[in-house]
Amino acid sequence: MAITLKQLRYLTTLQEERHFGRAASRLNVTQPTLSQQVRQLEAMLGATLVERGQPASLTPIGRDIARRAREILSEVAEIQHLADRAQGMLSGTVRFGVTPTLGPYLMPKVVTRLHAAHPELRLHIREGIPDEQARALANAELDMLLAPLPIDHPRLHVEPLFREPLALVGPPDHPLHRKGQATARDFEGEAILSLDPRHHYSRQVADICDDLHATLLRDYEGTSLDGLQQMSGSGLGLAILPETYLRSESGGEHIVRRFAIADWEAYRSIAGVWRKGSVLADAFAQIAAVITEEANRTLA
Fold first, then answer.
1. In sequence order, what are the residues at sequence separation of 6 or more whose Cβ sits closer than 8 angstroms to the Cβ of residue 167?
2. Which residues form the HTH lysR-type domain (predicted)?
């Protein structure tokens, strides 16, 4: 009896959910069916793949097989995408990773355009830490990634898409707003808020603090740009916010105001990323082109 794609999909889903009931629900099968298929796979391979308990977890050999299984399933999906592209369309489900400091403020317009042009294309969007998502992409757990640079991985193709301005903001009653046009030197010693240090955004904010001789508030790390905006608006500290956020419905300058600084500006560079040699490289490039066009419209 040969190993089936269904069995590989069951194993990878079980690893992600770490629970037979949740995995069965996600796969739209009964729990006994899932359990039976996993046991059949173990019997064919002559190895125990799953440690049954709460939570269910894979054995070391099970984890190795699940990693290879994801690569196989990804290749099979790419073959289907390739066949669809021969008919002039993008279709199927693309597992799309994006940083939470960009996705909510740019992707809605991108999704609208892609759905209108390619109604059979589905984006399974996962927000996450860019460095962690780059590893997931290299391991075939994602298909494409939209993230800030730098990204350096030997298995990934990095396509720079656009540069996004960053703004230094503070509460509307901050004394430097009354000055009119400030200089970088005026912010020496000012307290600046940031996010979880695992974010590339946090590392960039730290570099900006060094340039301005400002103080990075590590005791008040936000979990989102909304949180930074609100903390800054309350007077807890200044914040550095991306332009796409400030131009979004949830962002704006009703709680904070950007400072006019004569001798300072900052940007972040955003890239589309996919695995080198992917048969879907042309399709990912099409998606990246739409992202670039929408970003340029938003930032114009």
1. 240, 241, 242, 243, 246, 258, 259
2. 3-59
At 246, which amino acid appears? L
How many Å apart are CA 211 and CA 157, to the nearest integer? 31
CA distance 164 to 162: 7
CA 58 – CA 10 distance, rounded (Å) = 12
Contact 101, 204 (CB under 8 A): no
Specify whether the backbone of 18 is left (phi greater than 0), alpha (psi in -120 to 50) or beta: left
What the chain holds in terms of domains, given with CATH numbers, is: 5-69 (1.10.10.10), 90-162+269-299 (3.40.190.10), 164-267 (3.40.190.10)
Q: How far lies 172's CA from each of 40, 50, 169, 256, 280, in Å? A: 65, 56, 9, 6, 48
Distance CA 161, CA 298 (A): 14
**Confidence (pLDDT) at 115:** 93
Q: For 173, which DSSP code? A: T
Distances, alpha carbon 185 to alpha carbons 74, 168, 175, 193, 209, in Å: 51, 13, 14, 18, 12
Phi then psi dihedrals of residue 71, to 5 deg: -60, -40
Contact status, residue 255 vs residue 229, Cβ threshold 8 Å: yes
What is the enclosing helix (H) or strand (E) of 169?
A: strand 156-170
